[in-house]
Amino acid sequence: DVRAAHKSDRQAFLDPSRGVETIPVFERDRLEHGHELDGPVLVESAQTTLLVPHGWHLAIDEYNNARLEAL
Hints:
This protein is mainly β. Helix content is 0%, strand content 56%.
């Protein structure tokens, strides 16, 4: 269940028309094959932080790659 990877929520300013939003933050190490998220979300790891903006989709593939695709 992807909810097990939910770490916290964070305030972010991503779009002037939306203002400050509260978006979920997920732990990359806890995302597994088949997990999918629609933006906006942040995905954090020890090496990097991924921002999945509005209109984008993140999927973890069978090789544990995080794939971003526009919706």
